[in-house]
Amino acid sequence: MFGGKNPAYDYFPCQHQLFYRGKGSGQIWYEPVFKAITLDGREVWRRRVYRVRRGKVPGTFHFSVLDNGVTSNEFWRVLDCDDELEFCLFYYSGAASTAGLSYSGAVLGTSDGRMPGPQHTERLNAALRRAGIQPWELSYVDNSDCGGAPLDITGPVARAPAGGRGGGAAGAAPAPMPAPA
């Protein structure tokens, strides 16, 4: 991911947005993998597993996740997506109603975590403005030290690896970062 609008949601370093099909007809899962900085300064990998349902309007989706005991429901829509998938720009809004929290934002996903080429700037800016977002509102994701990201699928369709782990649930246990050499 290159950037996003909501610093509380999109600011984490080294974000990887994994989407995959489930076992059922039309079933989709979303598994973001990202680094979090702990209070004592350590970097740890975190992930969540979202269930995704297609909306009635093409390009719209309903996401739900159980995160630390709180269920969040989100509505996502595709603002723009390059035909060659160099980038996809999404808008989302959501709520964790039991926590009394609502939020919204945008996510600019790219295949390599870099800003799409300058030929896409006006197109992206126009898509953001149509959603009521100014381009300068985006936070940029720090993708400078992302080696070792645990990009295996752990959600409901994953097969258990040797040792019996796998098939995780929402908010699955994080994979610790290796100690610096």
From TrEMBL:
It comes from the Eukaryota. Residues 4-143 form the VDE lipocalin domain. Pfam families: VDE. InterPro entries: Calycin (IPR012674), VDE (IPR044682), VDE_dom (IPR010788). Residues 162-181 are annotated as: Disordered. One of its GO terms (biological process) is xanthophyll cycle. GO terms for molecular function: violaxanthin de-epoxidase activity. PANTHER family: OS01G0716400 PROTEIN (PTHR33970:SF2), VIOLAXANTHIN DE-EPOXIDASE, CHLOROPLASTIC-RELATED (PTHR33970). This is VDE lipocalin domain-containing protein.
